[in-house]
Design goal:
206 residues, alpha/beta, four-stranded antiparallel beta sheet, three-stranded parallel beta sheet, 9 strands
């Protein structure tokens, strides 16, 4: 299996990245899960960076909920990152399959019988989906896609690049400054680009 862009960030001066996703919460997980489902033959996910200081999906998001003592989400069960085609099947089905329907709480003040999942149920659901994308049951192309770093700056390179949607993304990795120029900062798609450590290679320093 070829080296992932995330591996290359730590060991090479330059790395190509077709897609960069800044942040790794439920929205990022939903985006990548949908891409994996809708275009299974695409090589895009092989050239994807997920940039987040936590280095894992939904870690910071879940920690914030726990720190605030949130027992249940406010959103209903059909609001989830799984790319299921049927409304409300994935999370509710997960709860039923694992004997956790008791963790669904009716949402008051709505006409329909909507239910909200517990925070822990939703977290476990996201962890299972992320495991599938990292190389388990569905798609191994996202294995090693994470870069444990903070994006400190995003600069469009329209004037300096032949690519129509190219960005220079400055990263802070372990107190070092890296700049990543890719074709899709913030979830946009493009082609070509590079990542440079410590500002070497023509990239900007954060």
């Amino acid at each position: 299996m070829p080296r992932s862009p995330a591996d290359s960030v730590a060991s090479a001066l330059h790395v190509d990245a077709e897609l960069a996703v800044i942040g790794s919460g439920p929205a990022a997980l939903a985006l990548l899960a949908r891409l994996a489902r809708d275009d299974p033959s695409s090589a895009l996910l092989h050239s994807t960076l997920v940039i987040d200081p936590s280095g894992a999906f939904c870690t910071a998001w879940a920690a914030k909920l726990r720190s605030q003592g949130v027992s249940h989400l406010r959103s209903p069960t059909f609001v989830h990152p799984h790319p299921s085609r049927r409304l409300d099947d994935a999370l509710h089905g997960y709860a039923a399959a694992h004997g956790r329907l008791r963790e669904l709480r009716p949402i008051e003040g709505v006409e329909r019988q909507w239910q909200a999942p517990s925070s822990r149920l939703f977290e476990d659901f996201c962890e299972d989906l992320a495991a599938d994308l990292r190389g388990g049951k569905e798609d191994e192309r996202l294995a090693g896609c994470h870069v444990a770093a903070a994006a400190t700056d995003i600069v469009p390179l329209f004037r300096d690049s032949a690519l129509p949607w190219a960005f220079d993304i400055a990263l802070d990795i372990n107190l070092r400054h890296s700049s990543c120029s890719d074709g899709g900062g913030g979830g946009s798609q493009g082609s070509g680009g590079h990542c440079s450590q410590d500002g070497v290679g023509g990239g900007s320093q954060g």
